[in-house]
Amino acid sequence: MTTPAPSPRKAALAFIFLVVLIDVLAFGLIIPVLPHLVEEFTGSTATAALWIGVFGTVFAAIQFVSSPIQGALSDRYGRRPVILLSCLGLALDFAIMALAPSLWWLLLARVFSGVFSASFSTANAYVADVVPPEARAKSYGMIGAAFGLGFTIGPVIGGWLGEVDLRLPFWFAAGLALVNFCYGLFVLPESLPPSSRATRFDWRAIRPYAAILLIGRYPRIVGLAAVVFIANLAHYVYPSVFVLFADVRFGWGPWQVGWVLFLVGVCSVIVNAAVVGRLVRAMGERRALIFGLCCGTVGFAVYAFAPQGWIFLLGLPVSALWAIAAPASQALITREVDVDMQGRIQGALMSLVSVAGIIAPIAFASVFGLFIGERAPVEFPGAAWALAGLLLALGALIAWRHAPRHAAASLQPD
Protein backbone atom coordinates (compact mmCIF):
# COMPACT_ATOMS: atom_id res chain seq x y z
CA MET A 1 0.00 0.00 0.00
CA THR A 2 1.56 3.27 -1.09
CA THR A 3 1.49 6.37 1.06
CA PRO A 4 -0.41 9.19 -0.64
CA ALA A 5 1.71 12.15 -1.58
CA PRO A 6 1.04 15.34 0.32
CA SER A 7 -1.27 17.79 -1.40
CA PRO A 8 0.35 20.77 -3.13
CA ARG A 9 -1.25 23.06 -0.59
CA LYS A 10 0.22 21.12 2.36
CA ALA A 11 3.63 20.98 0.69
CA ALA A 12 3.56 24.73 0.06
CA LEU A 13 2.53 25.44 3.66
CA ALA A 14 5.32 23.19 4.91
CA PHE A 15 7.81 25.19 2.89
CA ILE A 16 6.46 28.54 4.13
CA PHE A 17 6.78 27.18 7.67
CA LEU A 18 10.41 26.29 6.94
CA VAL A 19 11.08 29.68 5.32
CA VAL A 20 9.91 31.48 8.44
CA LEU A 21 11.59 29.01 10.80
CA ILE A 22 14.99 29.22 9.09
CA ASP A 23 14.84 33.00 8.72
CA VAL A 24 13.93 33.47 12.38
CA LEU A 25 16.50 30.87 13.44
CA ALA A 26 19.14 32.81 11.50
CA PHE A 27 18.17 36.05 13.25
CA GLY A 28 18.12 34.25 16.61
CA LEU A 29 21.65 32.98 16.01
CA ILE A 30 23.11 36.49 16.02
CA ILE A 31 21.24 37.79 19.10
CA PRO A 32 23.89 36.73 21.65
CA VAL A 33 26.91 37.78 19.57
CA LEU A 34 25.98 40.99 17.71
CA PRO A 35 26.36 43.22 20.81
CA HIS A 36 29.82 41.75 21.48
CA LEU A 37 30.89 42.32 17.89
CA VAL A 38 29.73 45.95 18.16
CA GLU A 39 31.64 46.18 21.44
CA GLU A 40 34.79 45.02 19.66
CA PHE A 41 34.48 47.91 17.22
CA THR A 42 33.58 50.60 19.79
CA GLY A 43 35.81 49.48 22.68
CA SER A 44 33.12 50.52 25.17
CA THR A 45 30.10 48.67 26.52
CA ALA A 46 28.13 51.91 26.98
CA THR A 47 28.86 53.05 23.42
CA ALA A 48 28.04 49.58 22.12
CA ALA A 49 24.64 49.72 23.86
CA LEU A 50 23.94 53.06 22.18
CA TRP A 51 24.82 51.64 18.76
CA ILE A 52 22.67 48.55 19.32
CA GLY A 53 19.78 50.96 19.91
CA VAL A 54 20.63 52.75 16.65
CA PHE A 55 20.69 49.38 14.85
CA GLY A 56 17.24 48.55 16.21
CA THR A 57 15.78 51.88 15.13
CA VAL A 58 17.33 51.63 11.65
CA PHE A 59 16.09 48.06 11.23
CA ALA A 60 12.51 49.02 12.15
CA ALA A 61 12.59 52.15 9.98
CA ILE A 62 13.83 50.21 6.94
CA GLN A 63 11.15 47.57 7.47
CA PHE A 64 8.57 50.36 7.62
CA VAL A 65 9.61 51.46 4.13
CA SER A 66 10.25 48.01 2.64
CA SER A 67 7.16 46.08 3.77
CA PRO A 68 4.63 47.84 1.50
CA ILE A 69 7.05 47.61 -1.43
CA GLN A 70 7.38 43.84 -1.03
CA GLY A 71 3.62 43.52 -0.54
CA ALA A 72 2.89 45.43 -3.74
CA LEU A 73 5.53 43.47 -5.66
CA SER A 74 4.03 40.17 -4.51
CA ASP A 75 0.52 41.29 -5.52
CA ARG A 76 1.77 42.25 -8.98
CA TYR A 77 4.36 39.57 -9.78
CA GLY A 78 3.51 36.73 -7.39
CA ARG A 79 4.66 35.59 -3.96
CA ARG A 80 7.36 33.12 -5.07
CA PRO A 81 9.92 35.52 -6.60
CA VAL A 82 9.64 37.92 -3.66
CA ILE A 83 10.19 35.16 -1.09
CA LEU A 84 13.13 33.67 -3.02
CA LEU A 85 14.80 37.06 -3.47
CA SER A 86 14.41 37.70 0.25
CA CYS A 87 16.09 34.39 1.16
CA LEU A 88 19.01 35.12 -1.17
CA GLY A 89 19.30 38.68 0.13
CA LEU A 90 19.44 37.53 3.75
CA ALA A 91 22.23 35.08 2.89
CA LEU A 92 24.24 37.96 1.43
CA ASP A 93 23.40 40.17 4.40
CA PHE A 94 24.65 37.69 7.01
CA ALA A 95 27.83 37.14 4.97
CA ILE A 96 28.46 40.92 5.01
CA MET A 97 28.06 40.87 8.79
CA ALA A 98 30.53 38.01 9.09
CA LEU A 99 33.11 39.91 7.02
CA ALA A 100 32.34 43.43 8.35
CA PRO A 101 35.63 45.28 8.98
CA SER A 102 33.98 48.22 10.75
CA LEU A 103 30.91 49.41 12.60
CA TRP A 104 29.61 51.18 9.49
CA TRP A 105 29.64 47.92 7.52
CA LEU A 106 27.58 46.33 10.29
CA LEU A 107 25.11 49.21 10.06
CA LEU A 108 24.88 48.72 6.29
CA ALA A 109 24.17 45.04 6.88
CA ARG A 110 21.34 45.94 9.27
CA VAL A 111 19.84 48.06 6.49
CA PHE A 112 19.87 44.99 4.22
CA SER A 113 18.33 42.93 7.03
CA GLY A 114 15.45 45.38 7.30
CA VAL A 115 14.84 45.23 3.55
CA PHE A 116 14.87 41.47 3.10
CA SER A 117 13.24 40.40 6.36
CA ALA A 118 10.11 42.26 5.22
CA SER A 119 9.22 39.01 3.39
CA PHE A 120 7.30 37.85 6.46
CA SER A 121 4.35 39.89 5.17
CA THR A 122 4.60 38.03 1.85
CA ALA A 123 4.58 34.73 3.74
CA ASN A 124 1.33 35.79 5.44
CA ALA A 125 -0.17 36.68 2.07
CA TYR A 126 0.93 33.27 0.72
CA VAL A 127 -1.03 31.56 3.51
CA ALA A 128 -4.11 33.65 2.63
CA ASP A 129 -3.75 32.49 -1.00
CA VAL A 130 -3.68 28.74 -0.32
CA VAL A 131 -5.74 28.28 2.85
CA PRO A 132 -9.53 28.70 3.07
CA PRO A 133 -10.71 31.39 5.51
CA GLU A 134 -11.97 28.94 8.13
CA ALA A 135 -8.53 27.28 8.42
CA ARG A 136 -6.27 30.35 8.31
CA ALA A 137 -6.08 30.91 12.06
CA LYS A 138 -4.53 27.46 12.53
CA SER A 139 -2.07 28.07 9.68
CA TYR A 140 -1.06 31.44 11.09
CA GLY A 141 -0.65 29.69 14.43
CA MET A 142 1.89 27.36 12.80
CA ILE A 143 3.72 30.41 11.44
CA GLY A 144 3.75 31.77 15.00
CA ALA A 145 5.14 28.43 16.17
CA ALA A 146 7.98 28.82 13.66
CA PHE A 147 8.77 32.22 15.17
CA GLY A 148 8.76 30.78 18.68
CA LEU A 149 10.86 27.76 17.74
CA GLY A 150 13.41 29.87 15.86
CA PHE A 151 13.86 32.35 18.69
CA THR A 152 14.01 29.50 21.22
CA ILE A 153 16.74 27.47 19.52
CA GLY A 154 18.60 30.22 17.66
CA PRO A 155 20.14 32.09 20.62
CA VAL A 156 21.29 28.82 22.22
CA ILE A 157 23.08 27.71 19.06
CA GLY A 158 24.40 31.22 18.42
CA GLY A 159 25.85 31.45 21.91
CA TRP A 160 27.56 28.08 21.54
CA LEU A 161 29.03 28.98 18.14
CA GLY A 162 30.05 32.39 19.45
CA GLU A 163 32.22 30.71 22.06
CA VAL A 164 34.23 29.17 19.21
CA ASP A 165 34.44 32.35 17.11
CA LEU A 166 32.43 35.57 17.37
CA ARG A 167 31.73 35.64 13.62
CA LEU A 168 30.88 31.97 13.20
CA PRO A 169 27.14 32.42 13.96
CA PHE A 170 26.90 34.93 11.08
CA TRP A 171 28.39 32.40 8.65
CA PHE A 172 26.02 29.72 9.94
CA ALA A 173 23.05 32.07 9.51
CA ALA A 174 24.18 32.89 5.95
CA GLY A 175 24.35 29.18 5.17
CA LEU A 176 20.83 28.61 6.50
CA ALA A 177 19.42 31.44 4.38
CA LEU A 178 21.20 30.09 1.29
CA VAL A 179 19.80 26.60 1.91
CA ASN A 180 16.37 28.22 2.21
CA PHE A 181 16.80 29.85 -1.20
CA CYS A 182 17.98 26.64 -2.91
CA TYR A 183 15.18 24.59 -1.38
CA GLY A 184 12.54 27.11 -2.41
CA LEU A 185 13.95 27.41 -5.91
CA PHE A 186 13.09 23.75 -6.56
CA VAL A 187 10.11 23.19 -4.24
CA LEU A 188 8.03 26.33 -3.73
CA PRO A 189 5.06 26.70 -6.13
CA GLU A 190 3.49 30.06 -6.92
CA SER A 191 0.34 30.66 -4.86
CA LEU A 192 -1.12 33.65 -6.70
CA PRO A 193 -2.37 32.83 -10.22
CA PRO A 194 -1.95 35.52 -12.91
CA SER A 195 -5.70 36.04 -13.05
CA SER A 196 -5.75 37.12 -9.39
CA ARG A 197 -2.76 39.49 -9.52
CA ALA A 198 -2.92 43.25 -9.49
CA THR A 199 -3.04 44.57 -13.05
CA ARG A 200 -0.30 47.10 -12.42
CA PHE A 201 2.32 48.04 -9.86
CA ASP A 202 0.78 50.81 -7.76
CA TRP A 203 3.60 53.24 -6.95
CA ARG A 204 1.33 55.19 -4.63
CA ALA A 205 0.76 52.10 -2.50
CA ILE A 206 4.48 51.63 -1.76
CA ARG A 207 4.76 54.89 0.14
CA PRO A 208 4.72 53.82 3.82
CA TYR A 209 2.11 56.34 4.91
CA ALA A 210 0.03 55.45 1.82
CA ALA A 211 0.27 51.78 2.78
CA ILE A 212 -1.13 52.55 6.22
CA LEU A 213 -3.82 54.80 4.70
CA LEU A 214 -4.75 51.84 2.51
CA ILE A 215 -6.13 50.18 5.62
CA GLY A 216 -8.64 53.02 5.85
CA ARG A 217 -10.25 51.82 2.61
CA TYR A 218 -11.50 48.84 4.59
CA PRO A 219 -13.27 50.35 7.64
CA ARG A 220 -14.01 46.90 9.05
CA ILE A 221 -10.30 46.22 9.60
CA VAL A 222 -9.27 49.63 11.01
CA GLY A 223 -10.04 48.52 14.56
CA LEU A 224 -8.25 45.21 14.02
CA ALA A 225 -5.23 47.04 12.61
CA ALA A 226 -5.20 49.21 15.74
CA VAL A 227 -5.18 46.02 17.84
CA VAL A 228 -2.24 44.66 15.83
CA PHE A 229 -0.34 47.92 16.38
CA ILE A 230 -1.05 48.06 20.13
CA ALA A 231 -0.21 44.39 20.64
CA ASN A 232 3.13 44.83 18.90
CA LEU A 233 3.87 47.91 21.00
CA ALA A 234 3.32 45.79 24.10
CA HIS A 235 5.44 42.92 22.78
CA TYR A 236 8.55 45.13 22.55
CA VAL A 237 8.68 45.25 26.35
CA TYR A 238 10.56 41.93 26.24
CA PRO A 239 13.64 43.05 24.27
CA SER A 240 13.50 46.54 25.77
CA VAL A 241 13.70 45.82 29.51
CA PHE A 242 13.62 42.11 30.33
CA VAL A 243 17.34 41.54 30.91
CA LEU A 244 17.81 44.67 33.04
CA PHE A 245 14.53 44.10 34.91
CA ALA A 246 15.49 40.51 35.77
CA ASP A 247 18.81 41.70 37.17
CA VAL A 248 17.36 44.59 39.20
CA ARG A 249 14.30 42.75 40.50
CA PHE A 250 15.51 39.17 41.01
CA GLY A 251 19.30 39.28 40.62
CA TRP A 252 19.18 37.00 37.59
CA GLY A 253 22.32 36.83 35.47
CA PRO A 254 22.72 35.83 31.80
CA TRP A 255 22.46 32.10 32.56
CA GLN A 256 19.11 32.44 34.34
CA VAL A 257 17.81 34.90 31.77
CA GLY A 258 18.75 32.53 28.94
CA TRP A 259 16.76 29.70 30.47
CA VAL A 260 13.75 31.93 31.13
CA LEU A 261 13.79 33.01 27.48
CA PHE A 262 14.00 29.35 26.53
CA LEU A 263 10.88 28.66 28.62
CA VAL A 264 9.12 31.62 26.98
CA GLY A 265 9.91 30.14 23.57
CA VAL A 266 8.75 26.64 24.56
CA CYS A 267 5.44 28.00 25.86
CA SER A 268 5.01 29.98 22.66
CA VAL A 269 5.63 26.93 20.46
CA ILE A 270 3.18 24.79 22.46
CA VAL A 271 0.43 27.41 22.30
CA ASN A 272 0.89 28.16 18.60
CA ALA A 273 1.27 24.54 17.49
CA ALA A 274 -1.23 22.77 19.75
CA VAL A 275 -3.65 25.30 21.23
CA VAL A 276 -4.43 28.00 18.66
CA GLY A 277 -6.34 25.83 16.19
CA ARG A 278 -8.43 24.12 18.86
CA LEU A 279 -9.31 27.28 20.76
CA VAL A 280 -10.19 29.26 17.64
CA ARG A 281 -12.49 26.45 16.46
CA ALA A 282 -14.11 26.26 19.88
CA MET A 283 -14.40 29.99 20.57
CA GLY A 284 -14.47 31.60 17.13
CA GLU A 285 -11.92 34.10 15.89
CA ARG A 286 -13.39 37.15 17.61
CA ARG A 287 -13.62 35.59 21.08
CA ALA A 288 -10.20 33.96 20.66
CA LEU A 289 -8.69 37.38 19.88
CA ILE A 290 -10.20 38.98 23.00
CA PHE A 291 -9.30 35.97 25.18
CA GLY A 292 -5.68 36.05 24.02
CA LEU A 293 -5.32 39.78 24.75
CA CYS A 294 -6.82 39.32 28.21
CA CYS A 295 -4.37 36.49 28.96
CA GLY A 296 -1.51 38.78 27.96
CA THR A 297 -2.85 41.47 30.28
CA VAL A 298 -2.99 39.09 33.24
CA GLY A 299 0.46 37.64 32.46
CA PHE A 300 2.07 41.09 32.32
CA ALA A 301 0.39 42.02 35.59
CA VAL A 302 2.03 38.97 37.20
CA TYR A 303 5.39 40.05 35.78
CA ALA A 304 4.96 43.62 37.03
CA PHE A 305 4.04 42.80 40.63
CA ALA A 306 5.82 39.45 41.22
CA PRO A 307 7.77 39.74 44.50
CA GLN A 308 9.88 36.67 43.75
CA GLY A 309 11.28 34.96 40.68
CA TRP A 310 9.17 31.82 40.97
CA ILE A 311 5.99 33.91 40.94
CA PHE A 312 7.26 35.67 37.81
CA LEU A 313 7.65 32.24 36.20
CA LEU A 314 4.01 31.44 36.97
CA GLY A 315 3.06 34.21 34.57
CA LEU A 316 4.85 32.55 31.63
CA PRO A 317 2.13 30.04 30.62
CA VAL A 318 -0.59 32.65 31.16
CA SER A 319 1.06 35.30 28.98
CA ALA A 320 1.91 32.60 26.41
CA LEU A 321 -1.82 32.26 25.68
CA TRP A 322 -1.60 35.80 24.32
CA ALA A 323 -0.16 34.15 21.18
CA ILE A 324 -3.72 33.14 20.27
CA ALA A 325 -4.52 36.77 19.48
CA ALA A 326 -2.14 37.22 16.52
CA PRO A 327 -3.41 34.41 14.25
CA ALA A 328 -7.02 35.19 15.21
CA SER A 329 -6.59 38.84 14.20
CA GLN A 330 -4.82 37.82 10.97
CA ALA A 331 -7.64 35.45 10.08
CA LEU A 332 -10.27 38.13 10.74
CA ILE A 333 -8.40 40.70 8.65
CA THR A 334 -7.90 38.39 5.65
CA ARG A 335 -11.65 37.70 5.56
CA GLU A 336 -12.30 41.38 4.92
CA VAL A 337 -9.82 41.94 2.06
CA ASP A 338 -9.91 41.07 -1.66
CA VAL A 339 -7.47 38.42 -2.89
CA ASP A 340 -5.48 40.85 -5.03
CA MET A 341 -5.03 43.18 -2.04
CA GLN A 342 -3.80 40.64 0.51
CA GLY A 343 -0.11 41.39 -0.06
CA ARG A 344 -0.52 45.15 0.23
CA ILE A 345 -2.67 44.89 3.35
CA GLN A 346 -0.14 42.54 4.94
CA GLY A 347 2.60 44.97 3.95
CA ALA A 348 0.67 47.82 5.56
CA LEU A 349 0.29 45.80 8.76
CA MET A 350 4.04 45.12 8.76
CA SER A 351 4.58 48.86 8.41
CA LEU A 352 2.50 49.35 11.55
CA VAL A 353 4.63 46.74 13.30
CA SER A 354 7.75 48.62 12.20
CA VAL A 355 6.38 51.88 13.62
CA ALA A 356 5.79 50.06 16.90
CA GLY A 357 9.42 48.89 16.76
CA ILE A 358 10.60 52.48 16.43
CA ILE A 359 8.47 53.86 19.26
CA ALA A 360 8.23 51.10 21.87
CA PRO A 361 11.88 50.47 22.91
CA ILE A 362 12.40 54.13 23.85
CA ALA A 363 9.07 54.29 25.67
CA PHE A 364 9.58 51.13 27.75
CA ALA A 365 13.23 51.87 28.53
CA SER A 366 12.29 55.39 29.67
CA VAL A 367 9.52 54.11 31.95
CA PHE A 368 11.80 51.42 33.38
CA GLY A 369 14.58 53.96 34.04
CA LEU A 370 12.16 56.48 35.59
CA PHE A 371 10.88 54.03 38.19
CA ILE A 372 14.27 52.65 39.28
CA GLY A 373 16.25 55.92 39.26
CA GLU A 374 17.04 58.32 42.10
CA ARG A 375 14.14 60.58 41.13
CA ALA A 376 11.59 57.79 40.88
CA PRO A 377 8.16 58.87 42.19
CA VAL A 378 7.96 55.35 43.64
CA GLU A 379 10.34 52.42 43.28
CA PHE A 380 8.58 50.09 40.82
CA PRO A 381 10.88 48.06 38.54
CA GLY A 382 7.83 46.38 36.99
CA ALA A 383 6.39 49.66 35.67
CA ALA A 384 7.22 48.82 32.04
CA TRP A 385 5.40 45.48 32.34
CA ALA A 386 2.42 47.26 33.87
CA LEU A 387 2.38 49.69 30.93
CA ALA A 388 2.47 46.78 28.48
CA GLY A 389 -0.42 45.14 30.32
CA LEU A 390 -2.47 48.33 30.11
CA LEU A 391 -1.81 48.46 26.36
CA LEU A 392 -3.10 44.91 25.92
CA ALA A 393 -6.18 45.72 28.02
CA LEU A 394 -6.82 48.65 25.68
CA GLY A 395 -6.38 46.30 22.72
CA ALA A 396 -8.94 43.90 24.19
CA LEU A 397 -11.47 46.73 24.54
CA ILE A 398 -10.92 47.82 20.93
CA ALA A 399 -11.27 44.22 19.73
CA TRP A 400 -14.49 43.80 21.72
CA ARG A 401 -15.85 46.95 20.09
CA HIS A 402 -14.59 46.57 16.50
CA ALA A 403 -13.83 42.91 15.69
CA PRO A 404 -16.44 41.55 13.22
CA ARG A 405 -19.05 39.35 14.85
CA HIS A 406 -19.86 37.41 11.70
CA ALA A 407 -17.54 35.44 9.43
CA ALA A 408 -19.29 36.53 6.25
CA ALA A 409 -18.45 40.14 5.52
CA SER A 410 -18.15 42.43 2.55
CA LEU A 411 -14.82 42.30 0.76
CA GLN A 412 -15.27 45.61 -1.00
CA PRO A 413 -13.62 48.82 0.20
CA ASP A 414 -15.79 51.81 0.87
TrEMBL record:
Residues 12-407 form the Major facilitator superfamily (MFS) profile domain. InterPro entries: MFS, MFS_dom, MFS_trans_sf, Tet-R_TetA/multi-R_MdtG-like. The keyword Membrane applies. It comes from the Bacteria. This is TCR/Tet family MFS transporter. The chain crosses the membrane at residues 12-34, 46-69, 81-101, 107-128, 140-162, 168-188, 209-237, 257-276, 288-306, 312-333, 345-371, 383-400. GO terms for cellular component: membrane. Keywords: Membrane, Transmembrane, Transmembrane helix, Transport. Coiled coil: none annotated. It comes from Luteimonas wenzhouensis. One of its GO terms (molecular function) is transmembrane transporter activity.
